[in-house]
Amino acid sequence: MPGFHVEHFGCRAARADGEALSERLRAAGLAEDATGEVVVVNTCSVTAEADREARAYIRRTHRRNPAARIVVTGCYAQRAPDELAGMAGVAAVIGNSHKALAAEIALGLASGGTASWSGLVPAASLLAGTPVWVDDRFAHSFIEEAQLAPGAQTRPNLKIQEGCGNRCTFCVIPETRGASRSLPQTVVMRQVEGYVAAGGKELVLSGINLGRWGADLASEAGAPRVTLAALVRRILSETRLPRLRLSSIEPMDWTDELIGLMREFGGKRLCRHAHLPLQSGSDAVLRRMHRRYRPWHYVEKVSALVRACGPDLTLGADVMAGFPGETEAEFEETLELVRALPFGYLHLFPFSPRPGTRGWALHGQAPVAAAAVEERMAALRALAAEKSRAHREQFVGRAIGAVTLRTSASRAGQGRTSALAENFLPVELEGQRAANELVRVRVGGLTDEGVLRGEAMEAPVDFPGT
Fold first, then answer.
1. What average pLDDT is seen over the chain?
2. Between these two residues, 374 and 217, which has the higher pLDDT value?
């Protein structure tokens, strides 16, 4: 039986793409094997470092297994297919515009054939002798997912939205994923209902710009416009999904209706976890970034979420250091805002100029010195660690809800089980338990790594409140 391996890079939505691709290849009879005949590299291109990591992995894979047919897909493949097509071992390059065809193309290679889609390799798609599928129409970008079920991923991602039209000056996503597009509501509900029927406990709604889900979908005559909040309410009202989690949502897309759902269902069936990209706490920097909110808008949204969910809310954000022209005073504004807000974790990034973006030109005009960027990153890392520890310590001695995860062999050998709290905090349970169980945990303390440790208080439940 031919083998395959999918290597993931990048965001939660990209991971969802890779998981869907893996499922389609398994359903076609291929076996997962790290040294298989076909290796799919699902790339990211949000930073130059992401590009470098993908190239390094391709070189390493070809060196270790020269016979492997390497298929490169994802954002890097969409942005710079020529760079990847010329690399040794690469048998096909498939941009996000054609990602839905990746399984068929990979299957052809696994069978010893050529990279083709329905037997066709248009001559115009050859770069460096390698077939390439990339265009700017994104007509084949949504992978038709097999029915989600709790398996390799205890809490799988259901990607319901693709693309982004915000045009932030630093971001290459509009180029690599196209305009915002939504998975139809009927498809979303069918997936959720099937996941519940398969015994799933927690499902994550994800997207490139999740808060814009529904904006491109036509409503029935006389019906209100379809929104993410309306979809969430329908999922919670019409299915018995035990736990729903929302991935990253832009600050301006946290509507009153969506925040109201956090108040109504938070801590019950809707996870008290909100990730709002911040990027900078400086009004001037946010304007140069072409972000569509100001620092006070951000504070207002966070305050509303805390009022809705209480202090158990885990708040996360993306923060960038070294955007072109960022002064020490502007960076201090970011530090002050981060200090003032109840963050439970931060994703930190140094600015990375991306070809084709306005940020690329700004970087050429007013770059921030590398030494200054590193100093600012160090200050952010220290502050993030301090805030994360303080947030987690408040749960010691308390009971929290969690879902058990697939536990590594080393941790299971120590008689422990990995879990994730409803509010997105990592948990380590005493004793061995199966994955995909909802449990209540009495938190006894923190490990040296800041993981909550404790014991399950009661038997697993299938549905909150039962």
1. 92
2. 374
Distance of CA 360 to the CA centre of its chain: 25
CA distance 117 to 132: 11
**How many whole angstroms separate alpha carbon 397 and alpha carbon 183?**
42
- Per residue in 204-244, pLDDT (tens digit) is 999 999 999 999 997 666 666 789 999 999 999 999 999 99
> Cβ distance 281 to 338 under 8 Å?
yes
pLDDT class for 124, splitting at 50, 70, 90?
A: very low
Q: Please give, one letter per residue, the 3-state secondary structure of 162-228.
A: ECCCCCCCCCCHHHHHCCCEECCHHHHHHHHHHHHHCCCCEEEEEECCHHHCCCCCCCCCCCCCCCH
pLDDT at residue 63, as a whole number: 96
* Cβ 59 vs Cβ 87: under 8 Å: yes
pLDDT in tens, 390-420: 999 999 999 999 999 999 888 888 899 999 9
For the chain, which domains are there?
A: 3-133 (3.40.50.12160), 157-393 (3.80.30.20), 399-456 (2.40.50.140)
Position of tokens 């889900």? 213
Residues 45-58: tens digit of each pLDDT: 999 999 999 999 99
Reported residue count of the chain is 466
Between the two ends of the chain, the Cα-to-Cα distance in Å is 44
Q: How many CB atoms lie within 10 A of CB 330?
A: 18
pLDDT over 60 (residue 466): no
| CB burial string 17-39: b at 16+ within 10 A, e below | bbbbbbbbbeeeebeeeeebbbb
Amino acid at 192: V
DSSP string, 313-364: -EEEEEEEE--TT--HHHHHHHHHHHHHS-EEEEEEEE----TTSHHHHHHH
pLDDT of residue 43: 96
**Tokens at 75, concatenated:** 């954002």
Tokens of 179: 């305009």
Distance of CA 139 to the CA centre of its chain: 22
- Rounded Cα distance between 155 and 148, Å, is 10
Task: Report percent pLDDT > 70 for the chain.
Answer: 94
| 116 exposure class (CB count in 10 Å sphere: 0-12, 13-18, 19+) | middle
**Beta strands 157-162 and 181-182, pairing class:** antiparallel
Q: What per-residue confidence (pLDDT) applies to 123?
A: 38
∠ CA(331), CA(336), CA(340), 5° rounding?
Answer: 150
Six-digit token string for 164: 């982004």
> Taking a C-beta distance cutoff of 8 angstroms, is the pair 141, 97 a contact?
yes
